[in-house]
Design a protein that fits this description.
Blueprint: E1 2-3, E2 8-10, H1 13-19, H2 31-37, H3 41-49, H4 55-63, H5 68-78, E3 82-83, H6 89-103, H7 125-142, H8 153-182, H9 187-191, H10 206-218, H11 221-226, H12 228-254, H13 256-263, E4 270-275, E5 289-294, E6 301-307, H14 312-326, E7 338-340, E8 345-348, H15 358-377, E9 388-391, E10 394-397, E11 407-408, H16 411-414, H17 426-432, E12 444-447, E13 452-455, E14 468-475, E15 483-490, H18 511-527, H19 529-533, E16 546-549, H20 554-564, H21 573-581, H22 598-607, E17 615-618, E18 637-639, H23 641-650, H24 654-670, E19 671-672, H25 695-712, E20 714-715, E21 721-722, E22 724-728, E23 735-739, H26 749-755, H27 762-771, H28 773-776, H29 784-792, H30 801-814, H31 817-832, H32 836-840, H33 852-861, H34 864-880, H35 904-918, H36 921-936, H37 967-977, H38 985-1000, H39 1013-1025, H40 1034-1057, E24 1065-1068, E25 1071-1072, H41 1081-1093, H42 1097-1102
Parallel strand pairs: 13-24
Antiparallel strand pairs: 1-2, 2-3, 4-5, 5-6, 6-8, 7-8, 9-10, 11-18, 12-13, 14-15, 16-17, 19-25, 20-21, 22-23, 24-25
Helix pairs in contact: 2-3, 6-7, 6-10, 6-12, 7-8, 8-12, 15-18, 18-24, 25-41, 26-27, 26-30, 26-41, 30-31, 30-33, 33-34, 33-35, 34-35, 35-36, 35-37, 37-38, 37-39, 38-39, 38-40, 39-40, 39-41
């Protein structure tokens, strides 16, 4: 609820919905029902929970026991303030905040601080200074009865700064919007000229000061009328700050004896400083604090970490380390002192200290290997760099929330008609429960709008190159010239690293000693196995303890919280509620109400308090308790973390240790760092000696890449082979790191295609044979269920089923008779298992992930069943085509994309091929609309087609020049139109333009097929040498072919300068060697082979089967369509 007047409060949408739940309500809610209340509300709500999936709207409300009448009644109540029967505690805090503002409107502003200053400045902090002073004074008064511990002024000042930071964070978006409306045009730029107008001195602050004084004097009344939800959040921030800090200080005062006994902090030592903001706020804004105590004479200080949560797991973990140290001949791993209170506790503070030389660095990595073994066996997951601290030769875990992770039941799949997660091979399942999940070893996440892949792992993260870095912030902060921009901020060395600024992460260099430490610690566990899993073993100390369970990535919650605080979301309870409705998306993937649906309500309840949702369960239990009167979710957990750890220790043997070590080495080998010859900025071409290689030399280089892939492969005892790397997710946009699977885009299928070019080499043929069993077993007669799951569990296009079918077709064409027949039988059995519902449920649609990427392989197969399915695919594309000719992927608000991988070029090629093959004009007409849409958006100045992925109407267009986006892929699309009814002189002009653009395009940073040099080189050759080529200008053809060869030779020469490493996947701090066809080494190898053979195989891969061999087309007479296929 939110303030509006003395007696009226705005209600919370979700509190009202929760109160109105009635399982007996069974009438469905539709978009029309919501539109009847507010025009466009139905589509807005649908966009929040399930874009383009209308049926999920009724599902969402049915599961909450809400029918249309009840929902409309709730919406009516949420649209106006109500008389408050009971005032919530935050109300009094908000009233105190307003009173404090009004009491001191003319208080002087803090002096202006430039962006490059070390002094901390917060946006609009001057507004909140009277509030902070009042809150600190009231906190002091509430503690006047304490007598034991002395609390210094510095401690209260630090707490005040913590409150100031929180208030600024919650309000900055609204305040900036309002301040921007107040400033006349031009004031922002003039302010930076300073008072003298000569650019000297600080920016002018006239309007800023007026803005601050107005809102102080007004007590925010005007602001809260416009943004009523903000009032509740301000009150909650102040309330939680006061409650959590009063509770903490009272505990510190009462714990004089244990603090002295456990940590040596004398009763006379005063608390002089408190550092907060070190963890996410949970359970009423509570967060971790670092406490600093000083003796009365000030000669010595001590630091201690206060954690407002049950510390039982922390204590049990430190006791486990103590047992480990006492029962092995290995040097001790450092343990920390812990004191457990009632739902809180203290931990010994650990200083981050870098290693002082190579000898200490070697000891560090040996101990890090040992700790990795301990954490793996204790079920550690997602233990990123914030969770550990390097201190000399030791690496210490400081957050045990990552230990003893439970295995959860897939409740979404259990409640779904179709499985919602990918079916995994045994090797993938084994990897999923391996050392890889610990988060200690190299793991990449995409960060920021640029989607830069950053290694966030504890041991793989790179130290900052310098002590400062550019970051998003405010220019002219707290002045009339205030605006968003990039500012220099201090860099921080990740606490898990033993090396500092500008140094190279040392894991690769110390891999052997790391693995030695891992092995020797695993051996110690084997030798003392009974100590750990016996009836009175070490693991029993964890039994019954409460443990946090993380149900979503914290970054998801933070992203939503940022949206909660946007001005538009603070204008009404409905707008705020729609932001939080996004939390229902993952649940609504289920067909029926999943068992854990109540978790959604609990997440919303906590997010409405600006808490990051926090769930706790018994470490050996299977149920998930919920708060606020919700019943627990029974059997939420499939296998408890305690039981999983027991099984891991029980089955530990030399074979298992060897497998885990394979994974350790695999992650390290996949990452090429500066120590291995990799450079973040590649050497300039003029610095490279580029040789023109012969066909035989190109083939030798392709073979070398295949051998490199064989070397970094992960193998198990059954001979199964996989690779660790980045592969494209089912959405066709996000990548994930781990076993790559058998996809063509980023998985093992590309390796198979490359290996097939070397039948004369026994070792390389053996690699191909090792890749065949997982594929061939799907063709066995008793595998009907597996084939159905194969279709339903993965993307339909290039990155999934379509890519695999194309791979089978190419392998069959180059195989001997027995294998060829097996592969063809497998292809037929897979197509027979494809159901219409698989096609109709696809919303990804595009070449990479959707039905557009399945059409080519189906047409290539050519059976009656395949053509029937291809028609269904075409109709699915037409169903979702917009009137202007494009497709809005990922939501109706997404601008339709151009290009081959995700856009109209790929869709047009797929549709025209179906139309021509089956003789149905509706498909050709759809392709024509797509072509017209794309042609209208050609940019003649750039000789290219815009990349609309980050489209902003008020911003200049951006461009890519690669297979996936831009001119090269569009030239490929036009090649696919050759011999079809849509081939015309404009196609030829577009191919000419694309070749001109691509021939002139500079050498790219990456080498792979998708958006790198080898993709561009291959497309130059394919387009310049196709059967349409005699219609292209001869000089351009020659230039394109020469440029293709030149690009390939430049790519090879650069790789040799980088220690033989091609640039597959650029990350912040390293280059990742990937196996995939479109993102990795196998595709690079295929491009090298293509320069030699110059045949149809690579063009078929790049066009996902849509570019017919030598341009040949099998066609049926085109007839006018009467209706769509049923």
């Amino acid at each position: 609820m939110t303030l509006i007047s003395e007696k009226e409060i705005w209600p919370s949408l979700h509190q009202l919905l929760q109160a109105e739940k009635n399982p007996a309500n069974d009438s469905a809610v539709s978009c029309d029902d919501l539109n009847g209340f507010q025009q466009g509300l139905g589509q807005t709500w649908l966009d929040a929970i399930a874009p383009q999936e209308d049926h999920k709207l009724s599902r969402r409300f049915a599961w909450s026991g809400l029918d249309a009448d009840t929902l409309l009644r709730v919406l009516a109540r949420a649209s106006k303030p109500e008389q408050a029967a009971n005032i919530e505690p935050w109300w009094d805090e908000l009233k105190a905040l307003q009173t404090a503002l009004r009491s001191d409107p003319d208080r002087a502003l803090h002096p202006y601080v430039a962006e490059d200053s070390d002094a901390q400045q917060l946006p609009f902090q001057d507004l909140w200074l009277p509030v902070v002073d009042d809150a600190v004074a009231r906190l002091r008064d509430s503690l006047s009865d304490l007598q034991t511990r002395s609390f210094d002024d510095g401690a209260f000042q630090a707490l005040g700064q913590s409150l100031l930071s929180r208030l600024c964070s919650v309000s900055e978006q609204v305040l900036f919007e309002q301040f921007n409306l107040l400033r006349p045009p031009g004031v922002m730029l003039l302010a930076h000229l300073g008072a003298g107008g000569d650019g000297q001195g600080p920016p002018v602050r006239e309007y800023y000061e007026r803005f601050i004084r107005h809102h102080r004097a007004d007590g925010l009344d005007g602001l809260l009328k416009t943004f009523p939800v903000l009032g509740r959040y301000l009150g909650l921030v102040c309330l939680f700050w006061r409650q959590s800090n009063e509770g903490m200080l009272r505990r510190i005062d009462a714990d004089v004896a244990p603090l002295q006994q456990t940590f040596g902090i004398a009763p006379t030592a005063a608390l002089i400083h408190i550092k907060q903001g070190l963890s996410d706020p949970h359970n009423g804004g509570q967060a971790v604090s670092v406490l600093t105590f000083a003796t009365p004479d000030g000669d010595s200080t001590s630091r201690l970490v206060y954690k407002p949560k049950d510390m039982g797991v922390d204590l049990a973990y430190q006791q486990a380390l103590d047992h480990l140290n006492r029962n092995t001949a290995l040097p001790p791993l450092r343990r920390l002192s812990i004191h457990c209170g009632d739902d809180y506790g203290y931990m010994e503070f650990v200083e981050h200290r870098l290693c002082r030389g190579e000898d200490e660095l070697k000891l560090f990595y040996r101990n890090a290997g040992r700790l990795t073994a301990v954490l793996h066996l204790l079920g550690c997951t997602d233990c990123h760099h914030e969770n550990l601290i390097a201190c000399g030769d030791q690496l210490l875990l400081i957050d045990t929330e990552t230990l003893l992770e439970a295995d959860l039941t897939d409740h979404i799949s259990d409640a779904s008609e179709y499985q919602t997660t990918l079916n995994q091979s045994d090797l993938q399942k084994r990897c999923q429960n391996s050392i890889l999940r610990s988060g200690l070893l190299p793991t990449w996440m995409f960060i920021g709008q640029a989607r830069t892949a950053v290694d966030i792992s504890a041991l793989g993260i790179a130290p900052p190159a310098s002590t400062t870095m550019k970051s998003a912030g405010w220019l002219g902060l707290n002045s009339d010239g205030m605006m968003a921009g990039r500012i220099m901020v201090p860099s921080e060395v990740p606490t898990s690293l033993p090396v500092g600024f500008g140094e190279t992460n040392g894991l690769n260099r110390h891999l052997e000693v790391f693995c030695e430490g891992f092995r020797e610690q695993c051996l110690a566990f084997e030798q003392t196995r009974d100590h750990w899993i016996g009836s009175n073993g070490v693991l029993e100390r964890f039994r019954g303890l409460p443990r946090r369970i993380v149900l979503r990535a914290t970054r998801v919650y933070f992203a939503l919280q940022r949206q909660q605080l946007e001005p538009a979301a603070l204008r009404s309870p409905l707008s705020q509620g729609l932001v939080l409705e996004q939390l229902s998306r993952s649940f609504l993937m289920a067909t029926d109400q999943p068992k854990h649906w109540p978790v959604f309500d609990e997440e919303v309840r906590q997010m409405e308090r600006l808490d990051i949702p926090f769930f706790v369960h018994a470490i050996d239990g299977n149920d998930l308790p919920l708060s606020n009167g919700f019943a627990p979710v029974e059997n939420f957990i499939e296998t408890s973390g305690l039981e999983s750890s027991r099984q891991r220790i029980e089955t530990l043997d030399a074979v298992e240790v060897q497998f885990q070590e394979q994974l350790i080495r695999g992650t390290s080998r996949a990452r090429v760092t500066r120590e291995d010859g990799w450079q973040e900025v590649a050497p300039a071409l003029e610095e490279i000696d580029v040789a023109v290689l012969t066909p035989e030399q190109l083939r030798l280089e392709a073979g070398r890449l295949l051998d490199c892939l064989a070397e970094i492969a992960i193998r198990d005892a059954d001979g199964l082979v996989d690779w660790l790397g980045m592969d494209l997710g089912s959405d066709g946009e996000k990548f994930s790191f781990g076993p790559v699977g058998n996809s063509l885009y980023g998985g093992t299928a590309g390796v198979a295609l490359l290996a097939a070019h070397f039948p004369e080499d026994a070792a390389r043929s053996d690699l191909l044979k090792a890749l065949m069993p997982p594929l061939l077993q799907m063709g066995e007669s008793n595998r009907d269920g597996m084939r159905l799951r194969w279709w339903r569990d993965q993307a339909l296009g290039l990155s999934g089923c379509g890519g695999t079918l194309l791979c089978l077709q190419q392998l069959a064409a180059s195989s001997e008779q027995d294998l060829r027949e097996s592969l063809q039988e497998l292809e037929s059995s897979l197509i027979s298992a494809l159901l219409p519902d698989h096609i109709r449920s696809d919303l990804t649609l595009d070449v990479i992930g959707g039905v557009a990427g399945l059409i080519g392989p189906l047409l290539e197969n050519g059976s009656a069943r395949a053509l029937e399915c291809a028609v269904l695919c075409g109709d699915q594309l037409l169903l979702h085509q917009k009137e202007e000719g494009g497709w809005s992927l990922g939501g109706l608000d997404r601008h339709p994309l151009l290009g081959f991988s995700h856009g109209t070029a790929g869709f047009a090629a797929a549709l025209v091929k179906i139309g021509q093959r089956v003789g149905e004009s509706r498909f050709i007409e759809g392709a024509s609309r797509a072509l017209a849409y794309e042609r209208e958006r050609f940019d003649a100045d750039h000789g290219n087609w815009p990349d609309y992925r980050d489209y902003k109407p008020d911003q200049p267009s951006t461009f890519m020049t690669s297979w996936c986006h831009g001119a090269p892929g569009i030239a490929l699309s036009r090649a696919c139109l050759f011999g079809t009814p849509l081939w015309d002189a404009i196609c030829l002009d577009e191919m000419t333009t694309a070749l001109q653009t691509l021939t002139a395009f500079p050498f790219t940073e990456m080498d792979h097929l998708c958006c790198g040099t080898m993709g561009n080189a291959s497309l130059l050759r394919i387009v310049a040498e196709g059967p349409w080529a005699d219609q292209l200008p001869a000089a351009l053809r020659s230039a394109a072919i020469e440029r293709s060869s030149r690009l390939v030779n430049q790519s090879i020469a650069r790789a040799r300068c980088l220690g033989g490493s091609y640039r597959c996947f650029g990350t912040s701090g390293s280059n990742v060697l990937l196996p995939g066809c479109f993102t990795g080494l196998s595709g690079i190898g295929l491009a090298l082979i293509d320069q030699v053979t110059r045949d149809d195989r690579l063009q078929s891969v790049l066009s996902i089967g849509l570019l017919s061999p030598s341009g040949a087309v099998a066609a049926a007479p085109v007839k006018q369509s009467v209706g769509q296929s049923s």
